[in-house]
Amino acid sequence: MAGVTTPLRLTDIAAQAQVSEATVSRVLNGKAGVAAGTRHKVLAALDVLGYERPVRLKRRSNGLVGLLIPELTNPIFPAFAQVIEQALAGHGYTPVLCTQTPGGATEDELVEQLEERGVTGIVFLSGLHADSAADPERYRRLAARGVPFVLINGFNPAISAPFVSPDDRAAAEMAVRHLEELGHRRIGLAIGPTRYVPSARKEQGFLAALPGADSDGLVQRTLFTVEGGHAAGGALLDRGCTGVVCASDMMALGVIRAARERGLGVPQDVSVVGFDDSPLIAFTDPPLTTVRQPVRAMATAAVGALLEAVAGTPVERTEYVFQPELVVRGSTGPVVGG
After folding, report:
1. Angle, to 10 degrees, between the axis of helix 21-28 and the axis of helix 36-49?
2. What is the pLDDT of residues 35-94, one digit of tens each?
3. Residue 153 pLDDT > 90, yes or no?
4. 21-28 and 10-17 helices, crossing angle to 10°
5. pLDDT tens profile 164-190
6. Residues linked to residue 298 through DSSP beta bridges, in sequence order
7. Interatomic CA distance for residues 117 and 111, integer angstroms
8. Mean pLDDT across the stretch 262-286?
9. Reduced to 3 DSSP states, what percent helix, strand and coil does the chain have, rounded to the nearest 5?
10. 139-154 core/surface letters (b: 16 or more CB in 10 A; e: else)
11. What pLDDT, on the 0 to 100 scale, is given for residue 199?
């Protein structure tokens, strides 16, 4: 019946939180002597069981923080969003997730809406700051209005703000070295449009490891999607590549599809390396060898830099670069006859 509150049952809460009823009672009554982790478990149990938290236990938000991401279809973006939201919530801030969709609100429109709601700060993930063709003036105007922000994945020296990025050049070189160690000599690159800083940097790392590859048609610039990887993979396989480095895990899945359409086995005939180590990518067929973005470390650093700025602490306006990690699985193997 509407308006009726379910009475709290200490037994149920204690069982859900795996603590004693006495501990639950101490938490509900705001008594001291309960570890922070235990207190959190009891409050989480209340939420899971559908009980409303007592008024004294409701924590007031320190403010809203906007999180702008390009899409939700690529699992690396929800992975970032989850860590960022957890970090913000742990500091008492309420995250507001804004996703750009084709035909939907633009980044500028979303920022305007967030400012109208009085956000404390904004985290940009793979936004227009990563596009070298975009006007950086929008970020200067945002800073002039006194809104703290931090930028993940993409660097522009014209923007005075903290940046957090993986070492994209090292990631591409790492992938090439792995394939070379397996005996591959004809190695291609499936990359996104190079007006995006992460793509340009990966291409630089790839060409540093394989000079002349671009002139030989071994760099294919396409879309950051399965379909884009499929198109690039087909072109690279037709050029005799036995190894392909990809700018994302989604693109790598497209390359694998292109290989199978040609009757080629992965990794028996073609080795494929992705980038990101997206959730569930270890369970593809075959499990994907990939270069892992340090998502948790990057997201935590970004939130830390933002909250320092919110608190008025001077934050260095520079790029913090995090080292990726090669994760070898089943999509790469020795070259046939190598």
Report:
1. 90
2. 877 887 888 888 888 887 776 665 667 889 999 999 888 999 999 999 999 899 888 899
3. yes
4. 100
5. 999 999 999 999 999 999 999 999 999
6. none
7. 10
8. 95
9. 40, 15, 40
10. beebeeeebbbbbbbb
11. 97
Neighbours of 37 (CB within 10 A): 7
Mean local confidence (pLDDT), 22-27 = 88
| Tokens (6 digits) for 4 | 């009726």
Backbone angles phi, psi at 188, to 5 degrees: -115, 165
Torsions phi, psi for 73 (to 5 deg): -70, -30
Q: Specify the 3-state DSSP secondary structure of 199.
A: helix
Confidence of residue 302 (pLDDT cuts 50, 70, 90): very high
DSSP state of 131: B
What is the distance between the alpha carbons of residues 54 and 36, in angstroms, rounded to a whole number? 17
Contacts of 192 (CB under 8 A, 6+ apart): 198, 199, 221, 222, 223, 224, 228, 247, 248, 251
Tokens 């292109």 sit on residue:
258
User: Residue 251: which pLDDT band, with cuts at 50, 70 and 90?
Assistant: very high
Q: What stretches of 215-294 show up as alpha helix (H) in DSSP? A: 226-238, 249-261
Mark 202-225 as b/e (b = at least 16 C-beta within 10 Å). Answer: bbebbbebbeebeeeebbbbbbbb
End-to-end CA distance of the chain: 73
Q: What is the CA radius of gyration of the chain?
A: 24
The amino acid present at 194, given as its one-letter code, is T
Contact by Cβ (8 Å): 220, 202: no
Residues 171 and 273: their CA atoms lie apart, in Å, by 11
Which tokens is 46 given?
């209340």
| pLDDT one-digit tens code per residue, 118-146 | 999 999 999 999 999 999 999 999 999 99
